[in-house]
Amino acid sequence: MRGVRHLSLWQDLPFEDLLQVVRDWPGLVGTPEEIVTQIHAFEAAGISEISLQWAAADDIEGLEILAAEVLPHMTNR
Prior knowledge:
This protein has 4 helices and no strands. The chain is mostly helical and 77 residues long. The chain has one domain. The model has no long low-confidence stretch (mean pLDDT 82).
């Protein structure tokens, strides 16, 4: 949620409204485990590539979590 707060459009939204925006976003949202599950569902559906757009380039902690807890579960087939 920290990352989307950097976007001026959502800076002042109440938390519950922001949470709904993120849930409705057409992308991968959730805990590392949920992200892995979502990516594997795309893989099972035949998707072989995804691209990453990180909302807050200065969210180094989030990128480190992605690298440590999500990427190791990806396959290169």
